[in-house]
Specification:
about 140 residues, 5-stranded antiparallel beta sheet, binds zinc ion, 3-stranded antiparallel beta sheet, 8 strands, mainly beta, globular
Amino acid sequence: MNDTATETPKPEITDQTRPFWEAAREGRLVMQKCAACGTVNFPPKPWCIDCGCRDLPWTTVGPGGTVYSWTISRSVAMNWPGWTGQLPVVMALVDVDGGARTYAQVIDCAPEDIRTGLRLVVTMVPVGEDVFIPKFRPAA
Ligand SMILES: [Zn+2]
């Protein structure tokens, strides 16, 4: 049965992004780190955003991160009805330790508790059979 009113979206896994999703399934957050200049590239790219190098080995980053900025979604988040039951949703730009800035949901965090500079830790949340999405929660 395909009930789009209650389903949440699943990631589209491509050859470019597969290592990211495989690592998430293993509980690791990975990003591409340029072998030539060290720039961490995220989201995944075929070449480095700084120097164009195509040697971008996947590197474990985090698990910690710091909130750079944030927003609270109190209506149907990003037009996907399946997320209605999760509202309000805390979303943040997170500077991942040893990684790049990424956009992610912050769970186990009341909207009034999110703030710039808050320390977070990544956690992999199952969203389907064998598929996990990196989300963050406040560090203990
Ligand atoms: Zn580079």
